[in-house]
Amino acid sequence: MPYVLQVDFKMEGPFGDEMANAFIDLAKSITEEPGFIWKIWTENPEAKEAGGIYLFETKETAEQYLDMHTKRLGGFGIKGVNGKIFAINSKLTEITKGPVK
Which keywords accompany this UniProt record (predicted)? Predict the structure, then answer.
């Protein structure tokens, strides 16, 4: 069963196109993580927040990624990483056209 990982944290920037250009290598590396299916990148420049919504194959791979990513962000000087893992209700998600199969 796939699991969603929601991550957010305070960040001074960059945002928008600058963020896209700065984090290309990071984005590519994320696709190689065990159990990774997809990620939606999130940002709110006004609130100085960033993060993402991820889909992983299992709860265990989501937990492993959250642990590793929290440590990686700490290495960038980012503290206070919020991470939550959720099971997916596949029947209702299918009705509402969620990209989970």
Answer: Monooxygenase, Oxidoreductase
